[in-house]
Design goal:
This protein is mainly alpha-helical. The protein has a domain of about 140 residues: AhpD-like (Up-down Bundle), CATH 1.20.1290. About 65% of the residues lie in helices and about 0% in strands. It is built from 13 helices and no strands.
């Protein structure tokens, strides 16, 4: 997993922005650093995903709206490029994860409808399908190969929003550079992340990833990369605590 520029992405001391930090950590709390380092290396040295794919997954995890860790985004974009990813790969990942914020509407909109009904409001009734919304739905099914009923309510209540959202979510599938399996693995990472944990999406994207040829061990590696986010507090906290002026 070593690369032409001499960096070894499996080594935990390579994670820190300030190279003096890991040295000081080994002096101040050597056993703690050793435990953190082993955890990092165990996941990053696994053989079931390429270094490039692991780093793209970590970009997605830290760039998700439920995380938005700017330091980790910078780190893993750089590491992804080092591991052989292209700028197009990274941009594909970043656009692919935009739709995660829409998951909140799957629970928020039904609450609104329930309160409108409780208040006896006429606008509690869903409008019919507009031709534009029907076209968006058909295009989505043609491009993505599925549809879930939560989307019906959004499409009927907010057709302009839903059209723009669907265009953004379908763009990587139409013009992106990742393979379908790679993109499904990115979605699995987002939906199993400790800051999101969206069960319905997770099951669906695992199913789709398997259909595209993903193995059990590849999916298990995604789970481990998501769990690796648990080290982020240690990394960022140590940088702040021990950084040199």
């Amino acid at each position: 997993m070593k690369h032409t520029n001499g960096r070894d992405l499996t080594q935990f001391d390579q994670v820190f922005h300030d190279p003096s930090v890991p040295k000081r950590l080994q002096q101040i709390a050597p056993s703690s650093f050793a435990a953190a380092s082993r955890y990092w290396r165990t996941i990053l040295t696994g053989e079931h995903l390429s270094p490039r794919m692991k780093e793209l997954v970590l970009v997605a995890l830290h760039a998700s709206v439920t995380s938005l860790d700017s330091e980790a985004i910078r780190r893993h974009v750089d590491r992804a490029l080092t591991a052989g990813a292209t700028k197009e790969d990274v941009l594909d990942v970043l656009l692919s994860i935009v739709g995660v914020a829409n998951h909140a509407l799957y629970s928020a909109v039904p609450v609104l409808i329930g309160e409108l009904k409780a208040a006896g409001r006429e606008d509690a009734e869903l409008p019919g399908w507009s031709p534009e919304a029907e076209a968006v739905k058909n295009d989505f099914i043609k491009t993505r190969g599925f549809w879930n009923e939560q989307r019906d309510v959004l499409a009927r209540l907010m057709p302009a929003y839903f059209g723009a959202l669907s265009q953004a979510s379908m763009e990587p599938w139409k013009n992106g550079v990742l393979s379908p399996k790679e993109r499904e693995l990115i979605y699995i990472a987002i939906d199993c992340s400790p800051t999101h944990s969206y069960g319905p999406g997770l099951a669906m994207h695992i199913r789709h990833a398997l259909q595209h040829g993903a193995s059990r061990d590849e999916v298990l590696t995604i789970f481990q990369l998501a769990a690796l986010m648990g080290l982020e507090g240690y990394i960022l906290g140590a940088e702040e605590l021990l950084r040199t002026d």
